[in-house]
Design brief:
The complex is a heterodimer of chains A (1020) and B (219). Chain A is of the alpha+beta class and 1020 residues long. Chain A has 25 helices and 50 strands. In chain A, strands 41-42-43-40-34-44 form a six-stranded mixed β-sheet. In chain A, strands 45-48-47-46-49-50 form a six-stranded antiparallel beta barrel. Chain A has a five-stranded mixed β-sheet with strand order 2-1-7-5-6. In chain A, α7 packs parallel to α8 and α17 crosses α23. The chains are: A alpha+beta (1020), B mainly beta (219).
Chain lengths: 1020, 219
C-alpha cells in the first residue's frame, strides 16, 4: 500500500471516509471518491488484467477508461471500466481474462508466439479444410476475449431513463463548457451540461498553476478557477448539471444521448439520457495521443494526466522514480508539479525541437531536472512492470538507459471530436495543431475549448463564451422568435467576444511525433486488440492503404475503448508509413507528415462513443401491451396468455395446447370468446359512403340497415390487406370492423386513399371503446335468448333510442343480421349474427366498461348449458376447419383477393379507378402463375404439417398456411398457398419441414371448406 | 344475479376511502393515505395520479369546426390549443377535429348532432398533478412541457411511455403543475405501472377525484 497525500486542495477524495471492498476474496481499503482503479493502485495492485490476444500484463494508463487495460469484473458484471467506476462498500472485484491470476497468468506464453499471428491471421489460416474452423474458433474463443458472462446472469440494480428538454446542451464540463453554459443560460435559455467525470472542472480541476498565465503565482490557480466556475454553473437556475454522465451519441437535429452513473443518493444505478435540444455546444476537450515505443503498455507506463491526476485528485504518487517522454507543455508542467509533490524525476525528454513554454523550462532547470530536447523513450523494460527505460534521440543514433519504476509518456494531444463526426461534421487534418478538425460544422452545433487547439486558459474560456452565445442565437432565431432588438444585442455581444478572442493566443502548434525509432514488434497502437505497429505495417504491405480498412483488417480501434487509444495515431501512422514507403523515407522521426506528401484520413466513429451496459439502454423495462376488459377475469379462468401484436390475448384455456375440449365444446355446445381486439370504427359525414366504396372491393351502397356486410380491402396491387364487416347506423353513418392487426393503420389508410378528393367525412377509432363477446355453438341462441329475455323494459336516454328485443330466432335475427338493443335497461349492445368459427354465432359489441358485466350475464345465462371459454387457438382451428381465412396466416404481402378465393367479394361493376386494387385484380384475373389457396388433408391419417412448412417437388412450390389435427373431422387438414398447377383437387403435395432430415410428408388437395360445406350450422 | 357495473381500465394498488356510484361507475373520491387536505393546502410537495377514465369525453369532427360550440363553448382556433371553461376542456386536434373533456365528473346532456361521437370508452384518462409532474413526465416522454413558446393549457398528441396519447398541460406553475392525458383503454394497466414506477422517487401516489376537482379550482 502506498501513502496518500491527504492535504492537497485539489483532492476529490475524502481520506477520512474509508471504503472496504473485496478484491479476489480479500478485504481492501479505499476512500470515498476513489475509483476502483485508484483504490486498487493505492493498495499496491499494478497488474489489473491481461490483454485480449497475447495475455500481456496491463495496468493503469489513462485513468479515463480509454482502453480495456483496467476492465475488471465487479459484482459479477464483466468488462467494467474500473477507472470510471467509483468504489463502494462491499464491492466484489475480480480480474478477468486470466488463467491463474493477473500476476501469474498461465496463458502469458502466447506473448512469445506473436510471430505466428500476423495481421489478419484468422482470415487466412485455419480455413482449409473448412472443417477445422469450427474447432479452431472454439479454441480461439477460449483463449481470447475479455470478461465472461453467464447466460442466466440477472443484472442487479435499477436502470432508468430520462428525456429532459433543453434549449442548449453543452457536452463537457470543463472551462470552455462551463463558460458556454453560463453564457447561454444568462440569456434566459434552458441549458443542460453533461460531464463524464463526477465533478465539473475539466483539465483545470487538478492543476495548480495560475489560470491567467499558467505560472506559479500567489494568485488564482486553475483548480480554484474551475471550482469558481462550477459553483456559478451549479447555482444557476437555468442550468441543469448532469455529472458522471458520458455522451454516447450525437445525431442530426441536435439529438444527444448519454448515460449517467448514479450516486449513493440517486434512485438508479445508471440511467439513459436522451435530449433533443435547439443547439449543441461541444467542449469535450482533448485526450493524450499515446507515444509508440516498445512495450509502451507495460504496467508502469502511463499518460501525463493519469499520473498528474492520480497525485492531485486522488493523493497518490504513481511511482518513486519517473522518466518523462512527452510532446506537449502539460507534460513539462506535470513534471514540475510532481517533483514538488515528492516524485523523483530522472529526466524529461521532449520530442519537440522548439515551441516549449520558456517559463516551464526555467522551472525544470530550477529543480535540476534534466531536460532532453529531441529525445524519446524507445523501450520499456521489465517483464511484468517497468524497471528500466531506454531513451534515444529521435533519429535513434544515441541511446541511454534509466532505471525507473514509472515512464510518463505522451506524444501529443488529440481532440475528442467523435461528437462532431457523429453529427456529420466533416473532419480534415490540420497541420498546425496536428488535429483532425471540423471543416464544416453540423447545423446549430458549436465547438469550443481545447478541441480547437487552444491551450491558453483565457482563450479557452472566451471560446466557450462565444460558443454559448452562438448557441443562444440559434435558439433566439427559431420560429417562436424574439424581438429584433434582442437578437441585434446578442449579435453585437458575439462580435465583441470574437474581437476579444483575436487578441488572445490562438491554437497552439501540436506535436506531430508518432513513433520512436523502433521496429514496432511490441509497440502497441491499440491496447484493446493487441495491435502493434508491426501489424499495421503488415497490413499496409499487403495492400491495405486506407485507415478504415486497416482498422478492420487488424482490429485496431474496435475494442471497448472505442478507438480512444489508436483513434488518432492510426491515421497518422498510416499516412506517414505509406508516404515514407513510397519515398523511401524512414518511418520514424518527427518529420512533417504532409511534407512526405500524405494527408491523414480519420477513421469513422460510431456510437456508443463510450460503452455502457445494455441494461442501461433497456431502462426501466416496462412492457407496454394492450389488454382487453376481460384480461383479469380470463386469467382467473385459467387463460394462458400470449402476446399477439400489441395485445395480450388468452390463447388457451388449459395445458392442452391442441385445445380439444374448447373446440369440441363450441362444436357441440356453446363457448365464449373475447374478441375485443377487433378494430372498430365509426365513419360518418356526407361522403362516408364514397370512402367505403373506395377502400372496399364490394359495392358498399348495398349495405342494408339491419344487415351485416362482409368485405375486404386491397392495396393498389390487389393484395388483401384487411377484411371485416360493415353495418349502416344511419344515412352516411357506418360502423365497421377491421382485423386486429390493421386497426392502428385504418384511419391513415382511408385518409391517404382519399387525399385528393376533398371529401367531407370523419372517422373515429372505437377499437378500445367496444368489447366484443363471441358467443358460438349450437346452444348460442338459447343462451342469447335467456340474456335478452331478462328485464328489458327500455328506459333512460340511451334506451329510448334502441328497441329491446325478445326474439332471437333464426327468422327474427337471421344470419348476417344486425341489431341494437339494451340488456337490463342499461347495457347497449350492437349484435351481429356471424359465423367465423362455422357454428351459430353472435358477436356482441358492448361499451368496454360494461364488458365484464355483460360477460358475467352471458356466463350466468349459459350456466345451465355448461358454457365454457375458448381462446384464440381454438378459434384458429375452428375457422380453419371452415376454411375461413385469417389475413397474415393465409396470406402474405403478395397474396391477392383472387388467390384466396375471395373474388366473389369484388363488385366488378364499380369503376376500376375508384376501387383500390381493382385494376391490378383485373390484370391478375387470368394470370396462371399466381398461387392459389387450397385445402389439403394429410395422407395415411398422418399428423398435421407445421405452419410455414414448404410445399416442394424439385423446387419450392408453395407453403402451408395453417394445418391442424381436426377433432371435428378426425383427420389432419390444412390450407396452403401453392402454384396453380398443384391446386386441382386430388393433387398429391409433398411437404418439407424444418429439420426433417430430408424425410417429406404428403397430403392431398381436397375441396374446401372441410367442415359443414353447406353452411347449415351457422345459418340455421 | 349479476350486478351491473362499469369498470375503469385503471386500477391502483390503494384502498379507496370514499367512493360514489355515478352512472354505474364506482368513482373513487379519496384513497386511504392521500391526506384530507384539498389540493394546494398542506400538500404542496406531493404528487398525485388520479383516474379520470369515467369522465365523459367527446370527439367532434366537422369541416366547419368554428361553427360548433360544445356546451356553448367556442373551440380554440389554434392547432393544439386548449381551453378550459366551467369544467369543460376543449382541445383543438387538427383542422377538423377537437376533443372535449367534461371534467366536472357529471354526465352532461349529450349533444345530438352527428358530428359528435362519445369517446369516454375509447381511452383511459388520468391526471398527474403536483410540483414534480414534469420530473416524472421527463422519465416517460421527450415532450417539452416547459416550452416557453406554448401557453397553458395546450395539447400534445404524442407518445408517453411509447404509447400515443393526448396530453393537456393545464398548469406548469410550481406545485399547481398538472397534466391530464388519455390513451387507448387497453394500455391502462401498463401505463399506471410505468407512471407509478417513474413517480416513485417523487412520492407519487394515487388520489381520488376530489383532488383533481380542488386542483382545478386553483387554476
Amino acid at each position: 500500500m502506498i501513502n496518500r497525500i491527504n492535504q492537497l486542495p485539489t483532492l476529490r477524495v475524502d481520506p477520512a471516509n474509508k471504503v472496504i471492498f473485496d478484491y479476489k476474496g480479500k478485504d481492501y481499503v479505499g476512500v470515498e471518491g476513489d475509483t476502483v482503479a485508484t483504490a486498487l493502485y493505492h493498495n499496491g495492485v499494478r497488474i489489473f488484467g491481461r490483454s485480449l490476444k497475447y495475455h500481456r500484463p496491463r495496468g493503469l494508463y489513462s485513468l479515463d477508461g480509454e482502453c480495456s487495460n483496467t476492465c475488471m469484473e465487479i459484482d459479477g458484471i464483466p468488462n467494467v471500466r474500473t477507472e470510471n467506476t467509483l468504489v463502494k462498500q462491499g464491492m466484489r472485484v475480480k480480474e478477468q481474462n486470466v488463467k491463474g491470476s493477473a500476476e501469474n497468468d498461465m496463458m502469458g506464453f502466447i506473448d512469445k508466439l506473436d510471430w505466428m499471428m500476423p495481421a489478419g491471421f484468422y482470415y487466412k489460416t485455419m480455413h482449409k479444410p473448412a472443417s477445422i474452423w469450427p474447432i479452431a474458433m472454439k479454441q480461439i474463443r477460449k483463449a481470447a476475449g475479455l470478461g465472461v458472462l453467464s447466460p442466466d446472469f440477472e443484472m442487479p440494480g435499477k436502470f432508468d431513463q430520462i428525456f429532459p428538454s433543453a434549449d442548449v446542451v453543452v457536452i463537457g464540463g470543463g472551462p470552455a463548457g462551463m463558460n458556454a453554459a453560463l453564457a447561454a443560460a444568462d440569456k434566459g435559455l434552458r441549458v443542460i451540461i453533461m460531464e463524464s467525470r463526477p465533478w465539473l472542472g475539466g483539465f483545470f480541476d487538478y492543476r495548480t498553476f495560475d489560470y491567467k498565465d499558467a505560472q506559479y503565482k500567489n494568485s488564482k490557480p486553475l483548480y480554484s478557477r474551475a471550482r469558481e466556475l462550477a459553483s456559478k454553473v451549479e447555482s444557476h437556475a437555468n442550468i441543469r448539471v448532469f455529472k458522471h454522465t458520458s455522451v454516447v451519441g450525437t445525431y442530426t437535429n441536435n439529438l444527444v444521448t448519454g448515460f449517467q452513473i448514479g450516486t449513493e443518493n440517486d434512485k438508479f444505478n445508471e440511467r439513459y439520457i436522451e435530449i433533443r435540444a435547439k443547439s449543441v455546444v461541444v467542449a469535450a476537450g482533448c485526450i493524450e495521443r499515446p507515444l509508440l515505443f516498445e512495450n509502451n503498455e507495460r504496467p508502469g507506463v502511463m499518460q501525463v494526466a493519469c499520473v498528474h491526476r492520480l497525485a492531485r485528485t486522488y493523493g497518490l504518487l504513481a511511482g518513486e522514480k519517473a522518466i518523462f517522454s512527452v510532446g506537449h507543455d502539460l507534460g513539462l508542467e506535470a513534471a514540475v508539479d510532481l517533483f514538488d509533490l515528492g516524485m523523483k524525476i530522472l529526466c524529461v525528454a521532449d520530442v519537440r525541437e522548439d515551441g516549449q513554454n520558456p517559463y516551464l523550462m526555467i522551472e525544470l532547470a530550477k529543480r535540476n531536472i534534466p531536460y532532453l530536447k529531441g529525445w524519446v523513450a524507445s523501450k520499456a523494460h521489465g517483464s511484468k512492470r517497468v524497471n528500466k527505460v531506454t531513451m534515444t534521440t529521435l533519429d535513434g543514433t544515441i541511446s541511454r538507459d534509466f532505471e525507473c519504476d514509472l515512464v510518463i509518456a505522451s506524444a501529443g494531444l488529440t481532440p475528442i471530436n467523435g461528437h462532431l463526426t457523429l453529427a456529420h461534421a466533416k473532419l480534415r487534418y490540420d497541420s498546425h495543431t496536428n488535429f483532425f478538425v471540423a471543416d464544416t460544422m453540423p447545423e446549430k452545433t458549436h465547438a469550443a475549448g481545447r478541441m480547437l487547439g487552444l491551450e491558453d486558459s483565457l482563450s479557452i474560456e472566451v471560446s466557450g463564451k462565444l460558443a454559448g452565445l452562438n448557441a443562444a442565437l440559434d435558439c433566439k432565431l427559431m420560429p417562436q422568435s424574439y424581438g429584433n432588438t434582442e437578437i441585434d444585442a446578442l449579435k453585437s455581444e458575439i462580435d465583441s467576444f470574437t474581437a476579444q478572442s483575436k487578441e488572445l493566443p490562438g491554437p497552439a502548434r501540436g506535436s506531430k511525433f508518432v513513433t520512436a525509432p523502433v521496429k514496432g514488434r511490441k509497440s502497441f497502437i491499440c491496447f484493446d486488440e493487441d495491435t502493434t505497429i508491426k501489424n499495421i505495417k503488415q497490413a499496409i504491405d499487403m495492400g491495405f492503404d486506407v485507415p478504415e480498412l486497416i482498422k478492420r483488417f487488424t482490429s485496431a480501434g474496435t475494442g471497448p475503448g472505442q478507438g480512444g487509444i489508436p483513434g488518432h495515431n492510426l491515421p497518422l501512422y498510416v499516412a506517414k508509413y505509406t508516404a515514407a514507403s513510397s519515398k523511401c523515407f524512414s518511418s520514424s522521426g518527427s518529420s512533417s507528415i504532409q511534407s512526405l506528401g500524405a494527408t491523414p484520413k480519420p477513421t469513422n466513429v460510431r456510437p456508443p462513443l463510450v460503452p455502457t451496459l445494455i441494461a442501461t439502454y433497456a431502462g426501466s423495462k416496462h412492457i407496454m401491451m394492450k389488454r382487453t376488459p376481460m384480461d383479469e377475469m380470463q386469467r382467473a379462468d385459467g387463460g394462458v396468455f400470449r402476446k399477439i401484436g400489441v395485445w395480450e390475448r388468452a390463447r388457451y384455456f388449459s395445458d392442452d395446447f391442441s385445445c380439444r375440449k374448447e373446440i369440441e365444446n363450441v362444436r357441440n355446445n356453446v363457448g365464449m370468446l373475447d374478441g375485443s381486439t377487433l378494430g372498430k370504427f365509426r365513419i360518418h359525414g356526407p361522403d362516408a359512403l364514397k370512402v367505403l366504396q373506395r377502400v372496399y372491393v364490394s359495392d358498399m351502397s348495398k349495405v342494408k340497415t339491419g344487415r351485416v356486410k362482409y368485405s375486404a380491402m386491397c392495396n393498389d396491387d390487389g393484395c388483401v390487406i384487411d377484411d371485416g364487416v360493415v353495418v349502416k347506423l344511419a344515412e352516411n353513418d357506418y360502423y365497421f370492423t377491421t382485423s386486429t392487426a390493421r386497426a392502428g393503420a385504418t384511419i391513415e389508410w382511408l385518409r391517404y386513399h382519399t387525399r385528393f378528393d376533398g371529401w367531407d367525412f370523419y372517422v373515429v377509432n372505437l377499437t378500445d371503446s367496444m368489447g366484443v363477446i363471441n358467443l358460438s355453438g349450437p346452444n348460442a341462441r338459447k343462451v342469447l335468448q335467456k340474456v335478452v329475455s331478462q328485464d328489458n323494459g327500455a328506459s333512460g336516454e340511451d334506451a329510448s333510442n334502441k328497441a329491446s328485443i325478445q326474439d332471437v330466432s333464426n327468422e327474427a335475427f337471421p344470419f348476417s343480421g344486425y341489431k341494437e338493443f339494451m340488456i337490463k335497461n342499461t347495457i347497449p349492445v350492437k349484435a351481429m349474427r356471424l359465423g367465423f368459427v362455422g357454428e351459430l354465432s353472435y358477436e356482441l359489441h358492448v361499451p368496454s366498461s360494461y364488458m365484464v358485466s355483460l360477460w358475467n350475464i352471458v356466463k350466468e345465462a349459459g350456466k345451465e348449458f355448461n358454457i365454457q371459454n375458448f381462446g384464440v387457438e381454438a378459434q384458429n382451428v375452428l375457422r380453419m376447419e371452415k376454411c375461413h381465412i385469417i389475413l397474415g396466416q393465409e396470406s402474405e404481402q403478395r397474396t391477392n383477393l383472387l388467390d384466396l378465393g375471395l373474388g366473389f367479394l369484388w363488385d366488378r361493376s364499380k369503376k376500376d379507378a375508384k376501387t383500390i386494387g381493382a385494376v391490378a385484380l383485373r390484370q391478375a384475373e387470368n394470370d396462371p402463375t399466381r398461387f392459389r389457396l387450397v385445402g389439403f388433408e394429410m395422407e395415411n391419417n398422418g399428423r398435421a404439417a407445421r405452419d410455414g412448412a414448404l410445399i416442394v417437388d424439385d423446387k419450392v412450390r408453395g407453403y402451408v398456411c395453417t394445418a391442424r389435427d381436426s377433432f371435428s373431422l378426425n383427420k389432419a387438414v390444412g390450407m396452403a398457398l401453392v402454384e396453380s398447377h398443384l391446386a386441382k383437387v386430388g393433387t398429391r403435395i409433398q411437404i418439407f419441414e424444418d429439420e426433417c432430415g430430408g424425410e417429406r410428408i404428403y397430403g392431398t388437395v381436397v375441396p374446401m371448406p372441410f367442415y359443414d360445406p353447406d353452411g347449415k350450422r351457422m345459418k340455421s | 344475479m349479476v350486478e351491473i357495473k362499469r369498470y375503469s381500465p385503471v386500477a391502483f394498488k390503494a384502498s379507496p376511502k370514499r367512493t360514489e356510484v355515478r352512472d354505474n361507475w364506482t368513482v373513487v373520491l379519496e384513497y386511504d393515505g392521500e391526506g384530507q387536505a384539498a389540493f394546494g393546502q398542506s400538500n404542496v410537495n406531493e404528487n398525485y395520479l388520479v383516474d379520470l377514465s369515467h369522465i365523459t369525453r367527446l370527439d367532434v369532427q366537422s369541416s366547419n369546426l368554428d361553427a360548433i360550440t360544445p356546451f356553448g363553448i367556442t373551440i380554440p382556433q389554434g392547432l393544439c390549443e386548449s381551453y378550459l371553461q366551467d369544467g369543460v376542456l376543449i382541445n383543438r386536434m387538427n383542422r377538423i377535429q377537437a376533443s372535449v373533456f367534461c371534467l366536472s365528473g357529471k354526465r352532461p346532456e349529450m349533444p345530438t348532432e352527428s358530428s359528435y361521437t362519445e369517446t369516454t370508452e375509447v381511452g383511459m384518462c388520468m391526471a398527474i398533478i403536483g410540483k414534480d409532474v414534469f420530473s416524472i413526465t421527463e422519465k416517460l416522454t421527450s415532450l417539452d412541457f416547459m416550452d416557453y413558446a406554448k401557453t397553458t393549457p395546450f395539447l400534445y398528441q404524442a407518445p408517453m411511455s411509447h404509447i400515443p396519447c393526448q396530453i393537456i398541460t393545464l398548469s406548469r406553475d410550481g406545485a399547481k403543475s398538472g397534466i391530464i392525458f388519455t390513451a387507448s383503454r387497453g394500455y391502462g394497466k401498463d401505463m399506471v405501472h410505468a407512471i407509478m414506477d417513474a413517480g416513485a422517487e417523487f412520492g407519487l401516489k394515487p388520489a381520488g377525484e376530489d383532488k383533481v376537482k380542488s386542483w382545478l379550482n386553483t387554476l
